[in-house]
From TrEMBL:
Organism this protein belongs to: Micromonospora krabiensis
Family according to the record: Belongs to the RuvC family.
SUPFAM superfamilies: Ribonuclease H-like
Name under which the protein is recorded: Holliday junction resolvasome RuvABC endonuclease subunit
GO terms of molecular function: DNA binding; DNA endonuclease activity
Record field: transmembrane: none
An annotated GO BP: DNA recombination
UniProt keyword list: DNA damage, DNA recombination, DNA repair, DNA-binding, Endonuclease, Hydrolase, Magnesium, Nuclease
Amino acid sequence: MTQPTPPKVIGLDLSLTCTGVAGNGWTDTIKPPTKLRGHERLQWIEDRIGDFAYRADLIAVEGPAYGTQRAGIQRGHHERAGLWWITTQRLWVNKIPFAVVDPTSVKRYATGKGNADKAAIMLAVARRFPWFDGGEDEADALILAAMAADHLGHPLADMPATHRKALDAVQWPDLLRAAGYGEPQRDPNACDTPGHPARPSGWCPICHGEPDEKTAALAALGRGTDDTRKDAA
C-alpha cells in the first residue's frame, strides 16, 4: 500500500543576521552579506525565505519576543519588526498557510517547560533529532517545523503529551481559507431567511407562496411586478 506523502512543513526563526529555517529531516540558515543594510538586506532575506516556502503546506513562524532584555536585543528592533511583518505579509499574499508561535510555546513543545533556556532547548533537540548538528537558530526552526507537522498529524518525533499541550496555545490557520477557499459565496437570489431556497429576483416560495404563472415568468427574467415587489417588501 502506498504511503501518503507527508506534508511540506517549514519552521522559521527570523533574524536579520542568521534566520533559522527547517523542515522534515533538515535545517539551514539564511545569512545575508554583512555589507547589506536596510531594504536591501530585508529583500535579500525575503528572497531566500521565498525559495524555502514555495508550495509549503504549513509554515510555523516564531512570534516576537516582547519584553526581552538580553544585551543588545533592542538594537535593530524596528528593522526586525519590519522583517517579521513583510515575511508574514508575503506568506499571506501568496496564500501559504502559516501560524505564529510564541516563544513560550516553542520552549514548552521542546522541553515541556515554557521558561527553558537555550541550553535546555539544544539538549532536547539533540535528544529528539540525533541527526541535528546546527546552532540555536536552526534548533528553534526545527522545533517550529515539528510543531507544524504534529498539528497536521505527521509528527517528526515522538513527543510526550505534556509537550504537545503547547500545540493548543497556537492559533492554527484554516488551511482551506488560507489557500483561498473561504466561506461559500451567498447566492444573491437567496432569501434572507437561512435555509429558505433561492429563486430569481429573490422570490421565496416559503415567505411569499408559490407565484402565479405571470409572476413566475417575470421572475425567471429577473423582473417582477409591482405587486410582487410590494409583497417582497
